[in-house]
Structures are given as structure tokens and as C-alpha cells.
Write a structure and sequence with these properties.
Largest sheet: 5 strands, mixed
Enzyme class: transferase
Bound molecules: 5'-O-[(R)-(carboxyoxy)(hydroxy)phosphoryl]adenosine, zinc ion
Helix content: 40-55%
Number of domains: 2
CATH class of the largest domain: Alpha Beta
Keywords: Acyltransferase, Cytoplasm, Iron, Metal-binding, Transferase, tRNA processing
Shape: globular
Number of strands: 10
Distance between the termini: 31 Å
Subcellular location: Cytoplasm
Radius of gyration: 20 Å
CATH architecture of the largest domain: 2-Layer Sandwich
InterPro entries: ATPase_NBD, Gcp-like_dom, KAE1/TsaD, Peptidase_M22_CS, TsaD
Family: Belongs to the KAE1 / TsaD family.
Number of helices: 9
Structural class: alpha/beta
């Protein structure tokens, strides 16, 4: 059987990404990060769309070149339909539509949230693939979801945040501590040297499998303000302990919900994704949970956890196999259900 070559485009937020897959194997995975947003302490939608406009053609060309594939060899074009920033999505979808039309190959619209989960099905040495059903937990700067995954395209969101995403909880806490954006990786770094029980933060009370992180952020703000008023050097003197305590609280919140999800569904396979799954504390806790609770945990390769096009490509591959194609009238969606 002839292999399929899928070109995938991801442009839902601030990263312009393109990948080429040969069936489930990634031949290239290119991401152009938009550094401009760091100056603003968060993603500026208008600037993101403009940067996508500038980056998309070079990024696709680099992805093809790295893969050693010419345009004429492509079997299909997959792109992110949503959810995401509308202006950003439109750049990727317009590009994908035009290229599919020019090459006369199928167009495949991909749900970004499904892609974060199906990233686990990329062929990668040393990484196992979860079997259905499993629980997917997508944790990033834009998402916080627990999903029951019954099959490739049969997923159900069973818990999600009611306010901030978990990555925002990291980033906003970091900002309160005067750390640059995005602060999640820095909290992780300093937490390694700190005592996670030095300071106690209360966990939000949210029913069922949903999350809330905005209260934690406010709690941390008041905690820091109060202590800095008493001792102007409070942050500098306690940075590692503060970071460790914040991270510990966030991990506890995630673990409480995962334990409840396992209890409610009886499913013990957990697959995580999204930028926050890079967090070393979360990785360690999940690795421990395998022996502690008998779970099987799947943590994808780092480049497939943050926003990337390879994950869009793997969904494209599975949709192609089921002949799930879209016509050129398909529209981008800022919000999208599974
Ligand atoms: O998936 P991603 O690259 O983009 C989206 O938000 O969709 O995730 C970025 C988020 C940011 O909030 C960043 O602070 C967080 O992931 N992050 C981390 C770590 N690495 C990235 N948070 C905690 N610990 C980390 N090591
Ligand atoms: Zn994402």
C-alpha cells in the first residue's frame, strides 16, 4: 500500500506550525514561535494574525524541505479548524484551502483539542500508544480539560475549567512574583529547589470534574501583597519555596480531579498533553501514580505536547483513513464542540 503524505498546518494561537507525516510517522515538525507577545505579557490576537501571515509560507516550505517531500507528493492538507483565535485560524485555513485546491488533494479540518489527545498516536520510538478507552487530560495556557476518549473521533469532555486555564494559573502566579512571561517553566525550575509545603494555599471547591483557577491566583496575589508589605524582600528571600508551594497546590488540584475521574469512569489509562504537561512535578507525580494507584500514564514527547502541527497531521492521517474530508466551504470556529 502506498504511504500517505499529509501536510498539516496549525495556527490556532501564537505559534505558526507545519508538519509532514508519512502515515503516522513525523517526517518534519516545524514551529515558528512569535516572540513579540512576550513584551506584552500575553498573546495579542491582532499581532498573532499578522505574524501568521508572514510566517506561514516559509514555515510550510521548511517543513516540506526537512521532510524531503515535494508538494506534488502530498496526499492531503490538514489544518486546525478551531478552537482558537479567529484571526489566527483564518490564516491557516485560507492557506490550507488554497493549497488543497491547487494540488487537487483532499482538505481535512481538524479539531485542535482532539489533536492534543490524538498526538499520542504518533509513531515514536520508545513511546507507547494508549488503547481505547482512556482519559485524556489537556493542560496548557489555553485549555484545561479531562476527556473520556472512546475512539479516535468519539470523545466526551467530562471536566473543564470554569475560568482560567491551568497554564494561566502558572503564568499569572509567576507575574505576581515578577517573573517574565510565560512564567510556567520558571516556576517549575525554582520549585525544584524549594519546599512544596512551605506555604499553604487552599484548593478551590468546585463540584464534579470541573476546575477553577482564578481564586487561587487571587489568593496568591493577596498572600504576596501581605508579606511584601511586612518584608519588601519577601519574594527574593522565599522565591523557591513560594514557587514549590504554588506548583504543589496546582498539581494537587489536577490530581484530585484525575482521581475522581478514574473513580467515576473506572478507566485507569491517563494520557496528558498541552504545554503544562512539560512540568516536571506533574510528570513525577503521574509516574508515581502508576505504582501508587495502578494507573498507566502516557506523557508524549515534549514537541508534541505544546501547540504543534504534527498532532494535526496525525488526526489528518486517521481522518484520511476514514475518508473524513471537508469541502472548501468549511469554516473556522473560535469555539468548537467535540
Ligand atoms: O501548549 P502551550 O505551548 O500553548 C497553549 O497555551 O496552547 O502551553 C503553554 C503553557 C504556558 O502557560 C506555559 O507557562 C506552560 O504551558 N508551561 C509550563 C511549563 N512549560 C510550559 N507550566 C508549568 N511548568 C512547565 N514546565
Ligand atoms: Zn493547544
Amino acid at each position: 500500500e502506498k504511504p500517505l503524505y499529509i501536510l498539516a498546518i496549525e495556527s490556532s494561537c501564537d505559534d505558526t506550525a507545519a508538519a509532514v507525516l508519512q502515515n503516522a510517522k513525523v517526517l518534519s515538525n516545524v514551529v515558528a514561535r512569535q516572540a513579540i507577545h512576550e513584551e506584552y505579557g500575553g498573546v495579542v490576537p491582532e499581532l498573532a494574525s499578522r505574524a501568521h501571515q508572514q510566517n506561514i509560507v516559509p514555515v510550510v516550505n521548511v517543513a516540506l524541505k526537512k521532510a524531503g517531500i515535494t508538494r506534488s507528493e502530498l496526499s492531503a492538507i490538514a489544518f486546525t479548524q478551531g478552537p482558537g483565535l479567529m484571526g489566527s485560524l483564518l490564516v491557516g485555513s485560507s492557506f490550507a484551502k488554497s493549497l488543497a485546491l491547487a494540488l487537487n488533494v483532499p482538505l481535512i479540518a481538524v479539531n485542535h483539542m482532539q489533536a492534543h489527545i490524538l498526538a499520542h498516536y504518533i509513531d515514536e520510538d520508545g513511546y507507547k500508544k494508549p488503547t481505547f478507552p482512556f482519559l485524556g487530560m489537556t493542560i496548557s495556557g489555553g485549555h484545561t480539560q479531562i476527556v473520556r476518549v472512546n475512539d479516535y473521533f468519539d470523545m466526551e469532555v467530562i471536566g473543564e475549567t470554569t475560568d482560567d486555564a491551568v497554564g494561566e494559573a502558572f503564568d499569572k502566579s509567576a507575574k505576581i512574583l515578577g517573573l517574565p512571561y510565560p512564567g510556567g517553566p520558571l516556576i517549575d525550575k525554582y520549585a525544584k529547589e524549594g519546599n512544596p509545603k512551605a506555604f499553604l494555599f487552599t484548593k478551590p471547591k468546585v463540584a464534579g470534574l470541573n476546575f477553577s483557577f482564578s481564586g487561587l491566583k487571587t489568593q496568591i496575589l493577596y498572600f504576596v501583597q501581605k508579606n511584601v508589605a511586612e518584608n519588601p524582600d519577601f519574594i527574593a528571600e522565599n522565591r523557591n519555596d513560594i514557587c514549590a508551594s504554588i506548583q504543589h497546590t496546582i498539581i494537587n488540584i489536577l490530581m484530585d480531579k484525575l482521581k475522581l475521574a478514574v473513580k467515576e469512569t473506572g478507566i485507569t489509562q491517563i494520557a496528558i498533553g498541552g504545554g503544562v504537561s512539560a512540568n516536571s512535578g506533574i510528570r513525577n507525580t503521574l509516574t508515581e501514580a502508576q505504582t501508587k494507584y495502578g494507573w498507566t500514564c502516557y506523557i508524549p514527547k515534549f514537541e508534541y505536547t505544546t501547540d504543534n502541527a504534527a498532532m494535526i497531521g496525525i488526526v489528518g492521517y486517521h481522518k484520511y483513513r476514514e475518508q473524513l474530508f471537508n469541502d472548501s466551504a468549511v469554516v473556522s470556529k473560535a469555539r468548537i464542540a467535540f
